């Protein structure tokens, strides 16, 4: 039996999952991703320890491979995960400094420098990047200014996926999707940008050569085999950024297919057949990165905070449901959603602006605040919770409308993954508001499966991503919109879109008072 393995490096969990060629998980294990704040003088500085990342991956792989009759049946492995975070290694492969976590604010001065000296316009026109405080290039500038002796000893700066690949097979390389996160990649030419490297003063030799995802890198060496339980000689294939990999297993790698990932954040992903690097796209807060599916595709990722706000409501106002759930041995979320579902569409005139963590897309305003509007003394807890669900789904519609307008994307199909797919009421409401069917995927772990698909392509077990998808696809539940509700929600959406501009100045004043 031939198997493939995907390693997923997440901010909370390190996963190793082994699949058969039909995409069924046959073995799996995970370990926590441990974030550390070891600096007493800078308690907000956050790191990942290389030994914990590598050690956790080794433990997960060893547990997963122990579930197989023969680990040599794994014919290819690929790694996916978070972007930006990297580690310096010397010529002997020793790591010299921990990963600076994307949670860490230490590069705020470098962020200001980049904004002032390179600027968001030039950066987006070349690299398709929004300039975020945790971008890789800013870490390199921080090291240059604060740890020059370490940087002088550095042979390569390995992004976190590339670090695991190096530890497994000894090869230093990166893929186009990960290179896209650095601020140093040219999206049109798909090479490191001489202009950005020269402007920043970063040493080009520190960067790994960028290659297409699915490229065979090397084979598991003896030391890694002993540490992981993998068979020596197992092929290592280049994976990529997690959100891109997640599209492969659900068929959202073709232009016109929109992937909606809803959890703490809502991430809307779609493929492009050319890099659209216009000011209009930049102003929406959307990055344009190279896709893992093909050298002829790019990907956009529109994101906004989502379920985090529902968790806030649950924690602050769900005491009654928690008490009842404990007594009845049921789930408090189900009880809360029953209240929301029982409220009438339109939430009895209550509306919610989901900007409790600022606004990220398609309106970029980090000073914006959340708001309930239309409260009366007849409003119930169910009305307020339904208003939150509807507000989040209006935000989703606003994102999709922005993508259509600025990128020329014509959504033909919506596929959903993430924790929200387990919430039938939320999914149905989203379909009613968007006015098109949404397929909730039945695939349990689409991201590591996407990495395994790339491993299968690199190992020659799949012809391409289309062939792989046909073999692993699992039809999900289809949520069909209620046309009468869609019509009603379109009228309400026009009112909802007025909330932000109406409250913008008030919220900015409140933010300045409270800060």
Assign the CATH topology of the domain at 3-245: Nucleotidyltransferase, domain 5
Please report which band the strand proportion falls in: under 5%, 5-15%, 15-25%, 25-35%, 35-45% or over 45%.
15-25%
Structural category is alpha+beta
The CATH C-level name of the domain at 3-245 is Alpha Beta
Low-confidence stretches: none
Describe this structure in words.
This protein has a 7-stranded mixed beta sheet with strand order 18-19-17-16-22-23-24, with helices on both faces. Helix 10 (242-248) crosses helix 17, helix 12 packs antiparallel against helix 15 (381-407) and helix 14 (332-342) packs across helix 15. With 515 residues, it is of the alpha+beta class. The protein has a domain at 3-245: Nucleotidyltransferase, domain 5 (2-Layer Sandwich). The chain is 41% helix and 21% strand.
Task: Describe this structure in a few short sentences.
The chain is α+β, with helices and mostly antiparallel strands and 515 residues long. Helices cover 41% and strands 21% of the residues.
Descriptive terms for the model:
7-stranded mixed sheet; Nucleotidyltransferase, domain 5; alpha+beta; 515 residues; single chain
